[in-house]
Specification:
Radius of gyration: 13 Å
Structural class: mainly alpha
Number of domains: 1
Shape: globular
Distance between the termini: 14 Å
Order of helices and strands: HHHHH
Number of strands: 0
Oligomer: single chain
Number of helices: 5
Length: about 100
């Protein structure tokens, strides 16, 4: 099973070089990449608890909404680049929180 540190390292690499991983580089493609990332984690035996995803969103200042945090980010006036990076930050925080609370 991959370590959380390795998963975070991979997400940081993605965050820095999105064009190597997705095309076009936009919020939808990043969102799809992160869904695929989570599926890959699951396939490798790293179960992701969605409650940690919700908690990570809330910890970063986003309300729980069925549509997720993107509309809130847009309403706040964040650029597409800022939204993409924030989505990765939520994912990283989710992994860290899950690791910390389930260790």
């Amino acid at each position: 099973m991959p370590s959380v540190d390795r998963l975070v390292e991979y997400l940081r690499a993605f965050q820095k070089r999105k064009p190597m991983y997705v095309h076009p580089v936009d919020v939808k493609a990043v969102q799809n990449f992160l869904i695929g990332f989570e599926v890959g984690c699951h396939a490798c035996g790293f179960e992701i608890d969605r409650e940690f995803w919700w908690a990570a969103q809330e910890a970063r200042g986003w309300d729980r909404r069925s549509v997720g945090p993107i509309p809130q980010m847009e309403a706040k006036g964040m650029s597409e680049a800022e939204i993409m990076d924030e989505l990765v930050e939520i994912e990283i925080l989710m992994l860290r929180e899950q690791e910390e609370r389930t260790a």
